[in-house]
Amino acid sequence: MPSETLWEIAKAEVERRGSNGSEGDGVGIGDKSVFFIGSKNGGKTTIILRCLDRDEPAKPTLALEYTYGRRAKGHNTPKDIAHFWELGGGTSLLDLISIPITSDTLRTFSIVLILDLSKPNDLWPTMENLLQATRSHVDKVIMKLGRTNSKAASEMRQKIWSKMQKDHPDRELIDPFPIPLVIIGSKYDIFQDFDSEKRKAICKTLRFVAHYYGASLMFTSKSEALLLKIRGVINQLAFGIDKSKSICVDQNKPLFITAGLDSLCQIGPPPVPDNDIGKFHAHSPMELWKKVYEKLFPPKRINTLKDVKDPARDPQYAESEVDEMRIQKDQELEQYKRNASKSWKQIELDS
Fold first, then answer.
1. What strand order describes the sheet that includes 79-87?
2. Which residue, 20, 74, 92, 339, shows the most beta carbons closer than 10 Å to its own?
Protein backbone atom coordinates (compact mmCIF):
# COMPACT_ATOMS: atom_id res chain seq x y z
CA MET A 1 0.00 0.00 0.00
CA PRO A 2 1.37 3.51 -0.79
CA SER A 3 2.66 5.36 2.27
CA GLU A 4 1.78 8.87 1.07
CA THR A 5 -1.51 10.41 2.07
CA LEU A 6 -3.99 11.54 -0.56
CA TRP A 7 -3.27 15.14 0.44
CA GLU A 8 0.48 14.69 -0.16
CA ILE A 9 -0.16 13.14 -3.56
CA ALA A 10 -2.60 15.91 -4.52
CA LYS A 11 -0.12 18.58 -3.43
CA ALA A 12 2.70 16.98 -5.43
CA GLU A 13 0.45 16.68 -8.46
CA VAL A 14 -0.50 20.37 -8.35
CA GLU A 15 3.17 21.31 -8.15
CA ARG A 16 4.04 18.98 -11.03
CA ARG A 17 1.30 20.39 -13.24
CA GLY A 18 2.34 23.91 -12.34
CA SER A 19 5.89 23.28 -13.58
CA ASN A 20 5.17 21.00 -16.53
CA GLY A 21 1.68 22.07 -17.69
CA SER A 22 1.13 23.30 -21.24
CA GLU A 23 0.62 26.96 -21.90
CA GLY A 24 -1.73 28.92 -24.07
CA ASP A 25 -4.49 26.58 -25.17
CA GLY A 26 -5.08 24.88 -21.83
CA VAL A 27 -5.02 21.41 -23.39
CA GLY A 28 -2.61 19.98 -20.83
CA ILE A 29 -3.14 16.30 -20.07
CA GLY A 30 -3.04 15.11 -16.48
CA ASP A 31 -3.07 11.68 -14.86
CA LYS A 32 -5.34 9.05 -16.29
CA SER A 33 -8.52 7.87 -14.57
CA VAL A 34 -10.35 4.56 -14.95
CA PHE A 35 -13.98 4.23 -13.86
CA PHE A 36 -15.28 0.72 -13.13
CA ILE A 37 -19.03 0.26 -13.45
CA GLY A 38 -21.13 -2.85 -13.95
CA SER A 39 -23.06 -5.73 -12.46
CA LYS A 40 -23.60 -5.87 -8.71
CA ASN A 41 -21.18 -8.45 -7.27
CA GLY A 42 -19.66 -8.79 -10.73
CA GLY A 43 -16.03 -8.72 -9.59
CA LYS A 44 -15.07 -5.05 -10.10
CA THR A 45 -13.17 -4.74 -6.81
CA THR A 46 -11.32 -8.01 -7.38
CA ILE A 47 -10.09 -6.85 -10.77
CA ILE A 48 -8.95 -3.49 -9.39
CA LEU A 49 -7.03 -5.13 -6.54
CA ARG A 50 -5.41 -7.56 -8.97
CA CYS A 51 -4.35 -4.73 -11.27
CA LEU A 52 -2.79 -2.88 -8.33
CA ASP A 53 -1.04 -5.98 -6.93
CA ARG A 54 -2.87 -5.62 -3.65
CA ASP A 55 -3.19 -8.85 -1.72
CA GLU A 56 -6.26 -8.08 0.32
CA PRO A 57 -9.82 -9.45 0.41
CA ALA A 58 -12.38 -7.65 -1.72
CA LYS A 59 -15.06 -5.87 0.28
CA PRO A 60 -18.50 -4.93 -1.05
CA THR A 61 -18.49 -1.48 -2.64
CA LEU A 62 -20.94 0.71 -0.76
CA ALA A 63 -21.52 3.50 -3.27
CA LEU A 64 -18.61 5.24 -5.00
CA GLU A 65 -15.07 4.34 -4.00
CA TYR A 66 -11.68 5.70 -4.99
CA THR A 67 -8.13 4.39 -4.93
CA TYR A 68 -4.99 4.99 -6.94
CA GLY A 69 -1.97 3.23 -8.34
CA ARG A 70 1.56 4.33 -9.20
CA ARG A 71 3.94 3.06 -11.83
CA ALA A 72 7.43 4.18 -12.87
CA LYS A 73 8.13 4.49 -16.59
CA GLY A 74 11.81 3.87 -16.11
CA HIS A 75 14.80 4.14 -13.76
CA ASN A 76 15.02 7.42 -11.83
CA THR A 77 11.86 8.81 -13.42
CA PRO A 78 8.81 10.18 -11.59
CA LYS A 79 6.03 7.66 -11.12
CA ASP A 80 2.80 8.08 -13.03
CA ILE A 81 -0.36 8.14 -10.95
CA ALA A 82 -3.59 6.54 -12.11
CA HIS A 83 -6.92 7.15 -10.43
CA PHE A 84 -9.37 4.26 -10.03
CA TRP A 85 -13.05 4.86 -9.34
CA GLU A 86 -15.63 2.16 -8.70
CA LEU A 87 -19.41 2.49 -8.70
CA GLY A 88 -21.21 0.04 -6.42
CA GLY A 89 -24.82 -1.06 -6.42
CA GLY A 90 -25.10 -2.14 -10.05
CA THR A 91 -27.62 0.23 -11.66
CA SER A 92 -29.10 1.63 -8.44
CA LEU A 93 -26.71 4.59 -8.01
CA LEU A 94 -26.58 6.12 -11.48
CA ASP A 95 -26.57 9.69 -10.11
CA LEU A 96 -23.07 9.13 -8.71
CA ILE A 97 -21.62 8.69 -12.22
CA SER A 98 -21.34 12.47 -12.52
CA ILE A 99 -18.96 12.83 -9.56
CA PRO A 100 -15.65 11.58 -11.05
CA ILE A 101 -16.32 12.61 -14.66
CA THR A 102 -15.70 16.35 -14.99
CA SER A 103 -14.39 18.71 -17.65
CA ASP A 104 -11.00 18.59 -15.90
CA THR A 105 -10.71 14.78 -15.98
CA LEU A 106 -12.65 13.85 -19.11
CA ARG A 107 -9.77 13.90 -21.60
CA THR A 108 -7.87 11.24 -19.67
CA PHE A 109 -10.89 9.20 -18.58
CA SER A 110 -11.74 5.60 -19.49
CA ILE A 111 -14.73 3.41 -18.67
CA VAL A 112 -14.56 -0.29 -17.78
CA LEU A 113 -17.97 -1.97 -17.86
CA ILE A 114 -18.00 -5.34 -16.09
CA LEU A 115 -20.93 -7.65 -16.85
CA ASP A 116 -21.70 -10.83 -14.92
CA LEU A 117 -21.88 -13.57 -17.58
CA SER A 118 -23.47 -15.98 -15.09
CA LYS A 119 -26.65 -13.84 -15.06
CA PRO A 120 -27.65 -13.42 -18.72
CA ASN A 121 -31.15 -12.12 -17.90
CA ASP A 122 -29.64 -9.13 -16.09
CA LEU A 123 -26.96 -8.49 -18.68
CA TRP A 124 -28.76 -6.24 -21.17
CA PRO A 125 -30.57 -3.93 -18.69
CA THR A 126 -27.38 -3.54 -16.65
CA MET A 127 -25.34 -2.69 -19.74
CA GLU A 128 -27.98 -0.39 -21.21
CA ASN A 129 -28.74 1.61 -18.06
CA LEU A 130 -25.11 2.16 -17.13
CA LEU A 131 -23.90 3.08 -20.61
CA GLN A 132 -26.84 5.39 -21.29
CA ALA A 133 -26.37 7.23 -18.00
CA THR A 134 -22.61 7.50 -18.51
CA ARG A 135 -22.89 8.64 -22.12
CA SER A 136 -25.53 11.22 -21.30
CA HIS A 137 -23.29 12.78 -18.65
CA VAL A 138 -20.15 12.61 -20.82
CA ASP A 139 -21.96 14.34 -23.69
CA LYS A 140 -23.00 17.16 -21.34
CA VAL A 141 -19.44 17.55 -20.06
CA ILE A 142 -18.07 17.67 -23.63
CA MET A 143 -20.59 20.40 -24.51
CA LYS A 144 -19.56 22.34 -21.42
CA LEU A 145 -15.89 21.85 -22.27
CA GLY A 146 -16.54 23.10 -25.81
CA ARG A 147 -17.77 26.44 -24.47
CA THR A 148 -14.46 27.12 -22.70
CA ASN A 149 -11.99 25.04 -24.72
CA SER A 150 -13.29 24.29 -28.21
CA LYS A 151 -9.95 22.83 -29.30
CA ALA A 152 -9.97 20.19 -26.57
CA ALA A 153 -13.61 19.24 -27.28
CA SER A 154 -12.86 18.96 -31.01
CA GLU A 155 -9.83 16.75 -30.33
CA MET A 156 -11.96 14.47 -28.17
CA ARG A 157 -14.57 14.05 -30.91
CA GLN A 158 -11.85 13.17 -33.42
CA LYS A 159 -10.07 10.80 -31.03
CA ILE A 160 -13.07 8.49 -30.63
CA TRP A 161 -12.59 7.39 -34.25
CA SER A 162 -8.85 6.76 -33.92
CA LYS A 163 -9.29 3.08 -33.05
CA MET A 164 -11.22 2.45 -36.28
CA GLN A 165 -9.29 2.21 -39.55
CA LYS A 166 -10.31 4.83 -42.10
CA ASP A 167 -11.20 2.13 -44.63
CA HIS A 168 -13.10 -0.07 -42.14
CA PRO A 169 -16.39 -1.14 -43.81
CA ASP A 170 -18.43 -0.40 -40.67
CA ARG A 171 -17.40 3.24 -40.09
CA GLU A 172 -20.80 4.54 -41.20
CA LEU A 173 -22.74 1.92 -39.22
CA ILE A 174 -21.38 2.32 -35.69
CA ASP A 175 -21.61 4.99 -32.98
CA PRO A 176 -18.40 5.02 -30.89
CA PHE A 177 -18.59 5.82 -27.20
CA PRO A 178 -17.27 9.36 -26.55
CA ILE A 179 -14.44 8.13 -24.28
CA PRO A 180 -12.44 4.85 -24.26
CA LEU A 181 -14.60 1.90 -23.26
CA VAL A 182 -13.69 -1.66 -22.32
CA ILE A 183 -16.39 -4.30 -21.74
CA ILE A 184 -15.39 -7.24 -19.54
CA GLY A 185 -17.52 -10.35 -19.13
CA SER A 186 -16.78 -11.79 -15.68
CA LYS A 187 -17.36 -15.26 -14.19
CA TYR A 188 -16.42 -17.04 -17.40
CA ASP A 189 -15.80 -20.20 -15.34
CA ILE A 190 -19.59 -20.42 -14.80
CA PHE A 191 -20.50 -19.18 -18.27
CA GLN A 192 -18.43 -21.85 -20.04
CA ASP A 193 -20.78 -24.55 -18.70
CA PHE A 194 -23.83 -22.94 -20.33
CA ASP A 195 -25.61 -24.60 -23.24
CA SER A 196 -23.73 -24.02 -26.51
CA GLU A 197 -26.57 -22.05 -28.14
CA LYS A 198 -26.89 -19.77 -25.11
CA ARG A 199 -23.17 -19.07 -25.14
CA LYS A 200 -23.30 -18.34 -28.87
CA ALA A 201 -26.17 -15.85 -28.46
CA ILE A 202 -24.48 -14.02 -25.57
CA CYS A 203 -21.11 -13.89 -27.33
CA LYS A 204 -22.59 -12.56 -30.58
CA THR A 205 -24.63 -9.95 -28.73
CA LEU A 206 -21.72 -8.66 -26.68
CA ARG A 207 -19.52 -8.58 -29.77
CA PHE A 208 -22.10 -6.44 -31.54
CA VAL A 209 -22.50 -4.05 -28.60
CA ALA A 210 -18.74 -3.68 -28.17
CA HIS A 211 -18.15 -3.15 -31.89
CA TYR A 212 -21.03 -0.67 -32.19
CA TYR A 213 -19.57 1.43 -29.35
CA GLY A 214 -15.98 1.11 -30.55
CA ALA A 215 -15.08 -0.80 -27.38
CA SER A 216 -12.74 -3.66 -26.54
CA LEU A 217 -14.36 -6.88 -25.32
CA MET A 218 -12.88 -9.65 -23.19
CA PHE A 219 -13.95 -12.40 -20.81
CA THR A 220 -12.32 -13.25 -17.49
CA SER A 221 -12.65 -15.46 -14.44
CA LYS A 222 -10.55 -16.47 -11.44
CA SER A 223 -8.01 -17.96 -13.85
CA GLU A 224 -4.58 -16.37 -13.35
CA ALA A 225 -3.91 -16.37 -17.10
CA LEU A 226 -7.14 -14.47 -17.84
CA LEU A 227 -6.59 -12.03 -14.97
CA LEU A 228 -3.12 -11.25 -16.32
CA LYS A 229 -4.65 -10.40 -19.70
CA ILE A 230 -7.18 -8.11 -18.04
CA ARG A 231 -4.45 -6.51 -15.99
CA GLY A 232 -2.57 -5.71 -19.19
CA VAL A 233 -5.63 -4.01 -20.66
CA ILE A 234 -6.26 -1.95 -17.52
CA ASN A 235 -2.59 -0.93 -17.36
CA GLN A 236 -2.89 0.32 -20.92
CA LEU A 237 -5.83 2.52 -19.92
CA ALA A 238 -4.23 3.69 -16.68
CA PHE A 239 -0.58 4.11 -17.63
CA GLY A 240 -0.44 4.04 -21.41
CA ILE A 241 1.29 0.66 -21.60
CA ASP A 242 1.32 -0.80 -25.13
CA LYS A 243 -1.97 -2.54 -25.77
CA SER A 244 -2.33 -6.09 -27.01
CA LYS A 245 -3.48 -6.66 -30.58
CA SER A 246 -4.36 -10.31 -30.05
CA ILE A 247 -7.85 -11.50 -30.89
CA CYS A 248 -10.01 -14.50 -30.01
CA VAL A 249 -13.57 -14.72 -31.36
CA ASP A 250 -14.11 -18.44 -30.69
CA GLN A 251 -17.27 -18.80 -28.59
CA ASN A 252 -15.77 -21.91 -26.99
CA LYS A 253 -12.93 -19.84 -25.56
CA PRO A 254 -12.76 -16.60 -23.55
CA LEU A 255 -13.34 -13.75 -26.00
CA PHE A 256 -10.57 -11.18 -26.39
CA ILE A 257 -11.18 -8.54 -29.04
CA THR A 258 -9.35 -5.22 -29.11
CA ALA A 259 -11.41 -2.22 -30.25
CA GLY A 260 -11.52 -1.84 -34.03
CA LEU A 261 -10.53 -5.44 -34.86
CA ASP A 262 -14.04 -6.91 -35.17
CA SER A 263 -16.61 -6.35 -37.93
CA LEU A 264 -20.34 -6.75 -38.47
CA CYS A 265 -19.61 -9.25 -41.22
CA GLN A 266 -17.68 -11.48 -38.82
CA ILE A 267 -20.25 -11.09 -36.04
CA GLY A 268 -23.16 -11.99 -38.29
CA PRO A 269 -26.90 -11.32 -37.80
CA PRO A 270 -28.74 -11.44 -34.45
CA PRO A 271 -29.17 -14.99 -33.07
CA VAL A 272 -32.66 -15.69 -34.43
CA PRO A 273 -33.89 -17.86 -37.32
CA ASP A 274 -33.93 -16.00 -40.65
CA ASN A 275 -37.67 -16.45 -41.08
CA ASP A 276 -38.29 -14.83 -37.66
CA ILE A 277 -36.12 -11.74 -38.08
CA GLY A 278 -38.94 -9.84 -39.80
CA LYS A 279 -41.15 -10.24 -36.73
CA PHE A 280 -38.98 -7.84 -34.76
CA HIS A 281 -39.87 -4.19 -35.41
CA ALA A 282 -36.92 -1.95 -34.60
CA HIS A 283 -35.76 1.55 -35.55
CA SER A 284 -32.03 0.83 -35.24
CA PRO A 285 -29.59 -2.12 -35.25
CA MET A 286 -29.07 -1.71 -31.49
CA GLU A 287 -32.81 -1.90 -30.85
CA LEU A 288 -33.07 -5.01 -33.03
CA TRP A 289 -30.32 -6.79 -31.12
CA LYS A 290 -31.93 -5.76 -27.85
CA LYS A 291 -35.30 -7.21 -28.80
CA VAL A 292 -33.76 -10.46 -29.99
CA TYR A 293 -31.63 -10.79 -26.86
CA GLU A 294 -34.50 -10.05 -24.48
CA LYS A 295 -36.63 -12.60 -26.32
CA LEU A 296 -34.00 -15.22 -25.47
CA PHE A 297 -33.21 -13.87 -21.99
CA PRO A 298 -36.21 -11.91 -20.62
CA PRO A 299 -35.02 -9.28 -18.13
CA LYS A 300 -36.14 -9.68 -14.55
CA ARG A 301 -38.39 -6.87 -13.37
CA ILE A 302 -36.73 -6.09 -10.07
CA ASN A 303 -36.50 -2.83 -8.20
CA THR A 304 -32.73 -2.54 -7.91
CA LEU A 305 -33.06 -0.08 -5.05
CA LYS A 306 -34.21 -2.93 -2.82
CA ASP A 307 -30.80 -4.53 -3.22
CA VAL A 308 -28.98 -1.61 -1.64
CA LYS A 309 -28.23 -2.39 1.98
CA ASP A 310 -28.40 0.21 4.72
CA PRO A 311 -24.72 1.14 5.27
CA ALA A 312 -25.48 2.02 8.88
CA ARG A 313 -26.19 -1.67 9.51
CA ASP A 314 -23.27 -3.07 7.52
CA PRO A 315 -20.87 -4.97 9.89
CA GLN A 316 -17.76 -3.80 7.99
CA TYR A 317 -18.48 -0.19 9.04
CA ALA A 318 -19.24 -0.98 12.68
CA GLU A 319 -18.25 1.59 15.33
CA SER A 320 -19.46 0.87 18.85
CA GLU A 321 -20.05 4.46 20.00
CA VAL A 322 -21.79 5.48 16.80
CA ASP A 323 -23.86 2.27 16.75
CA GLU A 324 -24.99 2.75 20.35
CA MET A 325 -26.09 6.29 19.55
CA ARG A 326 -27.89 5.00 16.44
CA ILE A 327 -29.77 2.40 18.51
CA GLN A 328 -30.77 5.08 21.00
CA LYS A 329 -32.04 7.35 18.21
CA ASP A 330 -33.94 4.47 16.61
CA GLN A 331 -35.63 3.77 19.93
CA GLU A 332 -36.51 7.44 20.35
CA LEU A 333 -37.94 7.46 16.83
CA GLU A 334 -40.09 4.39 17.52
CA GLN A 335 -41.32 5.97 20.76
CA TYR A 336 -42.17 9.16 18.86
CA LYS A 337 -44.13 7.13 16.29
CA ARG A 338 -46.09 5.35 19.03
CA ASN A 339 -46.87 8.62 20.81
CA ALA A 340 -47.91 10.26 17.55
CA SER A 341 -50.16 7.32 16.75
CA LYS A 342 -51.86 7.57 20.16
CA SER A 343 -52.31 11.31 19.73
CA TRP A 344 -54.01 10.88 16.35
CA LYS A 345 -56.31 8.19 17.72
CA GLN A 346 -57.25 10.45 20.65
CA ILE A 347 -57.98 13.30 18.22
CA GLU A 348 -60.23 11.02 16.17
CA LEU A 349 -62.12 9.92 19.31
CA ASP A 350 -62.57 13.50 20.49
CA SER A 351 -63.89 14.54 17.11
1. 64-72, 79-87, 32-38, 109-116, 181-186, 216-219, 256-257, 247-248
2. 92
